[in-house]
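Reposting from the mailing list since nobody answered there.

I have sequence plus structure tokens for a pair of proteins and want to know whether others read the tokens the same way I do. The first protein:
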Amino acid sequence: METANGSSGLAVLRRRWVQLSLAAATTVAGGLLLLEGVVGLPEAIRWGFASGVTLAYLLWLLWRNLPLNRRHGETGILPTLGAGTGLSLLRGLCIALLAGFLTLPRPLGLIAWAPAILYTVGDLTDYFDGYLARLQNHVTLLGERLDLELDALGLLAATLLAIHYGSLPWWFLILGLARYAFVAGLWLLERRGSTIQPLPPSGRRRAVAGLTMGFMSAMLWPIVKPPATTLAGILFGAPFLAGFVRDWLVVSGALDPASPQYQRARSVVLNFMIRIFPVLLRLGTVLTLVALLGRALLDTDAWVAAFQSQGYRWPSLTAGAFAAVELAALVLLLLGVAGRFASFALIVVLGFTIVGLGYDPLHGAALGGAISLLILGTGAFSLWEPERAIFGRPRGSPP
């Protein structure tokens, strides 16, 4: 078993911290030189300064919490960070690079996709870091602390950038500041001498957080724009904020999750939201897709011409492929077969369709239904839901 006494293990970690700091600083410097040839030296310096400040904060956070590099219930500090924490540090570097773009107008060309790529890479590392930590028996308090901090900072940076680019309205900053407001509230409770109640474990909390981060990745795509993004933001943001409100009521003692009254109310709400309401959503989304496909079939030439006018290279093939995905999603949602996967594919197709052809209420209704089904699932009378085995469960953990 990999253990070390406190002083020697911490000394090894601090030497490793110096190496990681130099490598991260070199990466930021390389990014500055790359951007200098694209946006000019003054803009690249601004980007480098903002990224450097963010990186310095994250490195300070890592240094401060190095003594937490130990397993639950153990006192010995592990002398290595492990692959899981290494992925978390890569995620932190991506967030630092992402933060630099807050100082620039939206770039043009291929570099415009850099923020979305950086945040998406961070999302993927967040999905696998815990898996690798469990695989190596290297789940530590440090890894958990970094995970929480990076969740909050990454979401804040992505939200600010989406607002900066005009993809989301300014009031969506509430989402990015949610955890910081929650932590500030806990601090105020402690100052008042109030008892902070523990939060019960929740798989849905992690699932909603993961969906929200995936949504924010899409909001950084250079092709998305309101009003479709505003609609998607409301649908993704509502369960995220509702979860924070519920958690605050629990930790503040205003809500007892173990009380019979709460359990009954929770059972009723979950039964409606997870079983009954999704059935209505499925029917509504299917009817909307029937209307969309019917409109396209009635005037196929105009449908293809619309794609051609937006510069699609193969308009007939694109229109046919999009219609095929919509038809497949219609059948799968009607039957309740792999509904979340079908909803995700439908969201992608509707997103590109709205970007190319413009927003209308029918496309908005279909997009809203698909997003809601992605979040809630397809509910009762579903024939096959393979995503239930993995949705909301950390990678590599027991079913």
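The second protein, same order (residues first, tokens after):
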Amino acid sequence: MSRLAWIPRIGPRLRRALIVLLLLLAVLLLFPFKTTIVPAWTLRVVDESGRAVRGIKVTEHWQHYLLESSGHEEVRQAGDDGRVSFPERAIRASLLGRFLATIVRLTKSGTEAKR
């Protein structure tokens, strides 16, 4: 007797409920949830005497080490008041994708991937 032989014996209501449950589980596993890597932030560049340094270039580097194999960077220039603002950096990935990425990283890097 097959392992799935019990399926025809369940009622239509229970079968529909199981199908809905499986669809909800699939959506949950495949929906690309947003994760903020770096929040939006602003800094002010000053010299030794506390005066604003205008026109200086500031570089932001970011990477989600689990989901991305390489990093990103953006260079911005300070304004007249020495301020530089960077936007939020975010990534979208499904729970299934995150799980698989974790497995791949662990198999490639061992326990170092957890750090």
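Reply #1 (J.P.):
I read it the same way you do. The beta strands are 33-38, 41-44, 57-62, 72-77, 83-86, 89-93.
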